[in-house]
Amino acid sequence: MNFTRVFIVCAFLASAPTQAQLFKSKKKSKSAVNAPAKKNNATPSITEKTKGMSLQQGLFDLYKDTQSGELFMQINASQLNQEYIHFTYTENGVIEVGHHRGSYRGSRILSFKRRYNQIDVVQHNTNYYFDPKNEVSKAANANISASILASEKIIALDTNGNILISADALFLTDKLHEINAGSRSPRKGFKLGRISKDKTYYERVKNYPENTDFIVNYAFDNPAPDGGSESVADNRYVNILLQHSLIAVPKNNFKPRRDDYRIGYFTEQINDMTATGYTNYKDVIHRWNLEKKNPDLAKSEPIKPVVWWIENTTPKYLRPIIKHAALQWNKAFEPLGFINAVEVYEQPDTATWDAGDIRYNVLRWTSSPNPPFGGYGPSFVNPRTGEILGADIMLEYIFLTNRVRLTDVYDVPKGSQDICHASNVLHEEWNKAQTWAQISQLDSGELTRLLEESLHYLILHEMGHTFGLNHNMKASQLNSPEELLNPELTYSRGLIGSVMDYPAINLPPKKDIKVQYEQVEPGPYDLWAIEYGYSIGFENEDEEEQRLEQILMKSIMPEHTFGNDADDMRSPGKATDPRINVGDLSNDAISYSIGQIELAESIMPKLLDRYGHGQHSYEPLRKSFSLLFGSYGKNGGIISRYIGGVYVERFMPGLSQTKKPYQAVPANEQRRAMEALSKHIFAPDAFKVPDGLVYYLQTERRGFNLFPKSELPSIYEAMLNTQLSFLAHLLHPTTLDRLNESYFVGNTYTQSEMLQSLTDAVFKVD
Predict the structure, then answer these.
(1) How far apart are CA 475 and CA 468, in angstroms?
(2) Is-contact 74 163, C-beta < 8 A?
(3) Disulfide engineering: 272 pairs with which of 211, 254, 282, 475, CB 3.0-4.6 Å?
(4) CB of 543 closer than 8 Å to CB of 345
(5) Which residues of the chain have a pLDDT value below 70?
(6) What pLDDT is recorded for position 41?
(7) Dist CA 489 CA 493 (whole Å)
(8) How much is the pLDDT for 661?
């Protein structure tokens, strides 16, 4: 023990000079840090650095080196630590990599913070709220992290504390936006590759007092792409035109409005970390800032209406129809005291602004090689409040054409519900309606009405999104099949409850029956939803809460029923309530869907006479058959969801004595659905393809595009895949489990009975 102590003391004494030297070095180093910088290393002034550069003034002043093209951004001292909205969207792109013209990429809150000789670009976390009156708010940053997106060196500064940084370092890279991520439906194997520093440049830079916009042409190199797109000249080199916008946070009287589970708005999800209730949701809805010019008047124009411009790319004959449809939304705002809340103008060919300018809300048209939608209505918001700051509506010209914009019916993917997707239901319905109209030999007046009502619905739907409304896939349940044949009733009450659904076009069983084809003005649900979102509120919070609750209590009314995409039953085994679906119509969707199958079967034998003569090729015949054959998949899918289904209602507890939140689909309805599938899908004589028709279902040849695939139409494969898609739902674990679990909510149609009926449908005749 004594020897050990002596050894430790000796070791300490031996190391003392070394430690002293270390402390001495550290002290010297610290002095060096605090010493004045040498003159030749001093940060230059902004005036010196930008000498000879062009200046573009705006929210953030921009300096451009006219020799190299390098761009610099000035951040004033007053702009440090202030919040700004950063918004990005694709001005032009390639659909197969998830970038299409007008696709909004989201918005967020950023600030610029100085750290020594660096500027940090910080994204703030807007998901949480702390009541400043609660002491817990003093710990608001505990375990909640902001993100430093970039840290850039200060290039120059002035005596006022203004700072100059490189704009190129932020906007010619992917530091602020991961461009290669977030694609909607990227083609397998087709990737953008890496950003090329040499080929990426500013297409345009626009500067205004309230926003600064950088429109950047990002060039991507991928020497060995796996797959590609016909819309790209050389798949190794892809260009994406993306706009970055820095926007001043609006300073106005806008008051956020809370979201509610009974109604369907897009939201910003916020958790109240000082709430003590059973939930701490403080979500706010997306809505425009509408204020009366004259608050004392019962009706007044708004201070700032929602102004839309019809882009000059729009065919002239469509502009009056589009304008009329758009202005129908004023019917939702007039009961709230707003006159001309929505205004619509045409963009002149001599306009000095372009449709990509975020200061303008534009109805835009494109004709894309492989359109991802028939219409698309995004908006961008202040993430803290939900205030909508701008919006566009993208319309694809293919909606008006006869081209079938989907995988041919012979290539139906196994296990899919049908050949439709929500974004193209309207286009497919329009094409099917044209086939029906031509076979029925409708007069020109009826054909015009069919077109105008379909276009009205498309505009109303997409514009509804720009007012903050999300889908309501349950709205098609408003009328019975018999009531749908009464246009006097439907034009007054509504064909469906909301234009935010994706319903079937209302085609009558016989051509001499006149009906309303599509909803042509906001429905009763839409009027109610707009009342909740845009009616003028009270200053007192308690009074305002009571006022909103009075509006929400109307959710119990049948015309206000609601269910969005999260609840719809398109995919096998997904969701719960069969009434929340796409492509259906009426409050007896089983009967209506059977009628649509039978309507398709009645038209098929007439196709050859209509399209087999006097055509350029057999493509019109093939297209029309494909759409009609698709009725088996679409309508059979709707019918199948009632088996094992449970009706879901959302209302305040105790408000209804008759309705329950969960109620199993009645057993007789489930049996009726199974009988319909047995007859129209699984029976040996199902899929009534007319004799002799397949001889003529020939694809129009184009170069070598048909090979090596077999040219012969795969009718049996299409039948089998359609049947498999229904088996995928009926035998899905979720469906089978729900048949058992729904016993507790009134179900008497058992799993064993369903399986026996399905077995009989598939095998009994054999």
Answers:
(1) 17
(2) yes
(3) 282
(4) no
(5) 1-41, 102, 180-189, 367-377, 397-424, 707-708
(6) 64
(7) 6
(8) 95
